[in-house]
């Protein structure tokens, strides 16, 4: 039987190592931290999104998401516009500069992931891994204990995507 604690530890260590490699390369080649890259991807996929929606998608608190959007906005990579359906919130969208850096950085991320993942696992295994990770993510997302949009005093706060893990 598989030791789930060891499996979890392997997943966390792999994620940390890959995060550090990708973050370093994106910063060196594009001046873009990996956490900002992920925000740009989510904003681009959604078109216009409320900060709350971004927080839910990225699995961090609304406060951390708002700060990340502030940084992207200060860098000219996104902008907030009035939400025509809810005056209490704004919508976040990419600026042309944000779309440009996302387009430039995406091949870099894909090349690095191909080096570390795509070249190691056969295509059929990658498909299976993607399916299994999707199942696990859906299970986690269906449990309210994993909802980071509101911080819970009794649960550990995971590092946000703008926090660079170090090994």
Describe this structure in words.
With 167 residues, the chain is mostly helical. It has a single domain, classed as Winged helix-like DNA-binding domain superfamily/Winged helix DNA-binding domain (Arc Repressor Mutant, subunit A, Orthogonal Bundle). Helix content is 62%, strand content 6%. It is built from 6 helices and 2 strands. It has helices at residues 4-30, 34-46, 51-58, 62-74, 96-118, 123-141, and strands at 78-82, 90-94. A two-stranded antiparallel ribbon has the order 1-2. Strand 1 and strand 2 form a beta hairpin. It starts with a helix and ends in a 26-residue tail after the last helix. The model has no long low-confidence stretch (mean pLDDT 90).
CATH topology: Arc Repressor Mutant, subunit A
What's the pLDDT, averaged over the residues?
90
State which percent range the strand residues make up: 5-15%
Number of domains: 1
Number of helices: 6
What is the name of the CATH class?
Mainly Alpha
Question: How would you describe this structure in keywords?
Answer:
Arc Repressor Mutant, subunit A; globular; mainly alpha; 167 residues; two-stranded antiparallel ribbon; 2 strands
Annotate the secondary structure layout.
Layout (H helix, E strand, L loop, with lengths): L3 H27 L3 H13 L4 H8 L3 H13 L3 E5 L7 E5 L1 H23 L4 H19 L26
Antiparallel strand pairs: 1-2
